[in-house]
Automatic annotation (TrEMBL):
This is Colanic acid biosynthesis glycosyltransferase WcaL. Coiled coil: none annotated. Keywords: Transferase. GO terms for molecular function: glycosyltransferase activity.
């Protein structure tokens, strides 16, 4: 009942779904050792994330010299596996070199090799028989190389969209083929793994949803009057489409004087989004809050009549699950796994990249009676509780770990 988890950077404010999954597995009796390559503690605001950071072993905090010595010692004791892993690291590094930002070249993959050797050693010392990684990027390559050098068998969860942006450069197919099993968070995500994994691997590719903790979402608060009041939550990055949302707000605001958007999150595009808000004279209509802890996110959802998700690329956003659990309908772009959850009974699906369609959906919210919005919110809540209860999703992982994850 012991297992290791590996994430590139953990914990992070935008990845509380991993913490929820780990805690659900621990409630089911699993003893989970948390590994991460690095920490994001300076950016953490949620006390639960801070506590999780203290429970996590961050590999790079060992320091370059100690990490190199630990890795070299392990590789000397496992020369055949180290040689195979070295070849794989060079192959994967060559696949990504100079082609896709963030995938790394051969030099970065040699650093992954050292991290993997140390990880194999730590799993051996702690008698951890299986390693599960989140994301098919850095953490999955480290897990794969570790396994090749005598570390435990590994599995990993693919979220998207990063993995689907550069599947060849990330050697996504090889990671699936070498894994004990792989998980996608939606049927769409699994279909993308089918594209790159060998057909013989397909039976080992599964769908396990990210989940919400239902007890954190009691009966929804009454639907607010007036507005419309919207909330958007996420990292201020190119894939989230928030700049387009500001354009949609500018189109909708002249005919909707009570329109207000609370934008929760932060990121590299914040200066551009702030500039767009100023350019369109939307300061009365848009509030940027930065990152909020889970309790304040729930407060923001309660104060809104709907969540709006204008993303250009996604996996299946957990924020949609949280909004639906809070009894709020959703406006979202019809991409990736989103249509598997959001239906006409629970919200509005619009084409990605279409500011006019977003503005029209905002207008639709404005003319929808409050009692109808509440009915949609109730349907949304029931749907997400049926499909994304973290305890049930953790039970699916338990079956996979017990039947395939342990030697």
């Amino acid at each position: 009942m012991k297992i290791a988890y590996l994430v590139n950077t953990y914990p992070r404010g935008s990845q509380t779904f991993i913490r929820r999954e780990i805690l659900a597995l621990e409630r089911l009796g699993w003893d989970i050792h948390r590994f991460a390559l690095r920490s994001d503690r300076a950016a953490l605001v949620d006390p639960a994330d801070m506590a999780e950071d203290a429970r996590t072993e961050h590999i790079l905090e060992l320091g370059a010299a100690k990490l190199a010595l630990s890795a070299l010692d392990w590789m000397v004791r496992h020369p055949k596996g180290a040689a195979h892993a070295f070849v794989m690291a060079l192959r994967c590094g060559t696949a990504g070199a100079g082609k896709t930002p963030g995938t790394g070249g051969w030099l970065r993959h040699l650093i992954y090799l050292a991290e993997a050797a140390h990880l194999a050693r730590r799993c051996h010392d702690l008698r951890l028989p299986h390693l599960h990684a989140h994301f098919g990027t850095n953490s999955a390559i480290v897990a794969m190389l570790s396994s090749m050098m005598g570390g435990p068998g590994y599995s990993f969860t693919v979220h998207g969209p990063e993995e689907f942006d550069a599947p060849r450069a990330l050697s996504l197919g090889a990671k699936c083929d070498q894994a004990v099993f792989a998980v996608a968070i939606s049927s769409f995500g699994r279909s993308q793994l089918y594209r790159w994994a060998a057909p013989a691997t397909w039976p080992r590719l599964h769908v396990v949803h990210c989940g919400i903790e239902p007890w954190r979402f009691p009966d929804p608060t009454p639907m607010p009057q007036g507005g419309p009041h919207l909330v958007a939550i996420g990292r201020l990055s190119e894939q989230k489409g928030f700049a387009l949302l500001i354009e949609a707000m500018a189109r909708a605001a002249p005919s909707l004087p009570g329109l207000h958007l609370t934008l929760v999150g932060d990121g590299e595009l914040r200066p551009q989004i702030e500039a767009a808000i100023a350019r369109h004279d939307l300061s009365r209509h848009v509030t940027l809050t930065g990152w909020l802890d889970e309790a304040r996110v729930r407060e923001a959802l309660s104060a809104a009549q709907a969540l709006i998700v204008p993303s250009f690329a996604e996996g299946l956003p957990v924020v949609i699950m949280e909004a639906m659990a809070a009894g709020r309908p959703v406006i979202a772009t019809a991409i990736a796994g989103v249509p598997e959850l959001v239906t006409p009974e629970t919200g509005w699906l619009v084409p990605a990249g279409d500011a006019s369609a977003l503005a029209q959906a905002i207008g639709d919210i404005a003319v929808t009676p409050v009692d109808r919005l509440a009915q949609m919110g109730h349907a949304a809540r029931q749907r997400v509780l049926d499909r994304h209860d973290i305890n049930r999703e953790a039970e699916k992982l338990t079956v996979l770990f017990a039947s395939k994850g342990n030697p």
